[in-house]
Amino acid sequence: QVQLVESGGGLVQPGGSLRLSCAASGSIFRGYAMAWYRQAPGKQRELVASINSMATTTSYADSVKGRFTIARDNAKNAVYLQMNSLKPEDTAIYYCNKLNSPLVDWGQGTQVTVSS
Q1: Residue 41 and residue 69: Cα distance in Å, rounded?
Q2: How far apart are CA 95 and CA 116, in angstroms?
Q3: b or e along 69-81 (b: 16 or more beta carbons within 10 Å of the residue's beta carbon)?
Q4: Cα-Cα-Cα-Cα dihedral sign, residues 53, 58, 64, 67
Q5: 3-class DSSP state of 55
Q6: C-alpha to C-alpha distance for 17 and 52, rounded to whole angstroms
Q7: What number of CA atoms fall less than 13 Å from residue 66's CA on the CB side?
Q8: What is the mean pLDDT of residues 73-95?
Q9: Residue 29 vs residues 34, 44, 77, 101, 111: alpha-carbon distances, Å
Q10: What pLDDT, on the 0 to 100 scale, is given for residue 24?
């Protein structure tokens, strides 16, 4: 059974940076586009960034474009999200998963809080 484990979240001041990591058991990453999602309190989960299987194409939500960078390491079954110039509106639980259906079971996510 594939498991996704997100880490790297925390409390950061506006303008700060964090690097999130996502590790997967099994070989879920190979051949699949992967993505980072986030869910803020009282809001639906939204797609933040995605990367194709060969890491040649990335895509970002308008709200994070120019500030976030997604990357992957297929040898390590890992996906990363570098987040710079963080804003209070980036506060959310961040999750990784496949980009396209069928998604695998969601992990526990990692909390990112941007506050002074």
Answers
A1: 23
A2: 24
A3: bbebebeebbbbb
A4: positive
A5: coil
A6: 24
A7: 3
A8: 96
A9: 7, 25, 6, 14, 23
A10: 83
